[in-house]
Amino acid sequence: MPSSTEALKKELEEELKLSSEDLRSHAWYHGPLSRQEAERLLQTDGDFLIRDSLSSPGDYVLSCVCSKQVLHFKVIAVTMRPRQGFSRVLYQLEQDQFDNIPALVRSYVGDKRPVSESSRAVIVNPINRTVPLSVVRAKQESQKANKENRRSLHLIDSSLLRNKDRFGSHPGNLDILKEIPLQSAQSDSNLLSAGSGEYSSPQEEPQPIPLSPMFRTGSDPVLRAKTQQVLPLDYDGNNALRGSDSQLHSKAPPKPIRAPSLLLPDPPEGTDIYCELVPRVPVTSRKYADTLKAEEKWKNRARATETTFGFLDTEKPPDIFPSGMANLHKKTNFMVNQPITESPEEEDDFVRPQIQTISSFKPTTFQSVLLSPENKPLEPNALRKLKEIVSCRDCKESALHILQEDCLDIRICGVLKEQQKSMGVRSGLELIILPYGQQLRRDLLERHHLLSLGVAVDILGCTGTVTERAHTLHRVICLASELLDYAGDLFAFSAVMKALMLPQVARLEQTWQILRQTHTDSAITFHKRLKPSLREMDECLTVPLPNKVVVPHILPVLKALEGEDDWGGAVEESCGRLFRILQAARSYATNAEVYQKNAECKLEGFTPQPELREAFKTEFSLRMFWGSKGATAEQAARYKKFDQILNVLSQKLEPETQRTRLASSVYGWTY
């Protein structure tokens, strides 16, 4: 027995030593614990534990005590739709969603907010397990086996009773008796006889049944069987009986197959066909560009005869046409009730937009002042020089530099007429909502992520004391505040906030604690104002007025149109959020000129510093983070590799011990 106890204790210790992201490493997770066992462990208000949902595999249950009553809340695992072989699982409790169960527990325990608005239950004290999960699982399996045995015995007893009743007072079993039972409200004389071996052939035409010779009164209906063929009784049990039969058949009818029983051949080219079994979308040979050209031609009715009279396509002025042709031209214009115009063709004719398929960022041809031509990823000298340049500048000045680069990359201002013609629109805010604006959307998502990585490197690259890191954190929060209030750049504001809420930054417990002690105002601003503002903008609950913003919060629009958004939760909520995002996208495109004027007014008289401006360029970030050779690698591989680098930097600053892992997972500091 002592050896067995030591083995279980050692197994429990091995489980608790796992990574903090692994659910098994948390003692408050009890695995497949039954509801009754959970209620036995929970005693006082605030006690809680996490267990598997036995009724819904893959989901979890949060069991807690509130007002001396044990409550159970189901945590639903929502799998997002795969995109190019990628899928993501979110865990939803009430209206909140989390990346994993430990993050859920940290959020509710750290913020001390109610788990449910109706119950107002708050979880405080975790109930930790004292045995490994294998013991809990084995106990649950044994209980399940015992329950199945009892259930099988009960089924055997009940089947015996049913057989006894069937051959006792109930009518004969239809599978054994080879006769057709009489239907209700029918007599023997009006029914066809159904012998055990003789049946009417399906090819024979059915004969009418004569009236019953039995004497009937005037009130009794004269029964005559319908002139239809009576189907024979199927002894194999494939034909189900009607509800009026004395006993229902024991075997259900087969379900219809989902695949169509008839597959039509492909129609010949040039023909449209519609069929209920094989619906097809009519194919048109007319392209979208041709439609736009036709609309442009008919926009000015004075030029409506261009498609009929070929002589009007010539570049000669109208006054040199022959007299007969000139008269015909006048008659044609008179017929369309338009004045005769002799001015040359307008210069702003329709030009087919050019579909961009290559990124606008060219790291290979980027001329850098801070980096060498063949630089390596995260060179120490370049990082040190970059930190000096950024830290010695005022936050407002840095915000204006970021704003200027965002306006150029999003194409809010500084767009030439030739570029507008190639885009087909005047602003990038209009292009991002169009189908052929996919490359611009991808470029902007890339820039947003690189801005976040740059801020994270600034924080995690501070290898000095904890106080220095806390000061860097304070400076980043001030930058986010200036981007929101002073510069009006909501795009960059969300990128900086994303960096502050990265797991590698949020886990720096000592740094955040020193921040609360030395820079209390920044900590309060981050929690009470910046985070709620970002949450409202992500959900598009409130769209700021165009006259107060320079760069709107286009991140939800980009992620929704590129299929990178998380649509977890109820269908009604997801549809409502999508509707709000599309409304915001329409507002951004409609007010593109307003945003352009705001940008020009905000940047009027602003003179950027060359080195600081380069620090916020996307090409510089690509070269800085992955080097001159790795900057052109595949995006997914680059992001995965850099995420591992951030993990190493974070662990190096504040190594995670077993004690801190257990404490942070329960009372964790989620920012």
TrEMBL record:
Molecular function GO labels: guanyl-nucleotide exchange factor activity; phosphotyrosine residue binding
Lineage top rank: taxon: Eukaryota
Domain SH2: 28-127
Residue ranges constituting the Ras-GEF domain according to the UniProt record: 394-656
UniProt cross-references to CDD domains, sorted A to Z: SH2_BCAR3
Pfam hit, one: RasGEF
Alphabetical list of SMART domains matching this protein: RasGEF, SH2
Protein name: SH2 domain-containing protein 3A
UniProt keywords, alphabetically: Guanine-nucleotide releasing factor, SH2 domain
InterPro entries with a match to the protein in the record: Ras_GEF_dom_sf, RASGEF_cat_dom, RASGEF_cat_dom_sf, SH2, SH2-Ras-GEF_adapter, SH2_dom_sf, SH2_SHEP1/BCAR3/NSP1
One GO biological process term: small GTPase-mediated signal transduction
Polar residues biased stretches: 189-204
Region (Disordered): 189-219, 235-265
Gene source species: Engystomops pustulosus (Tungara frog)
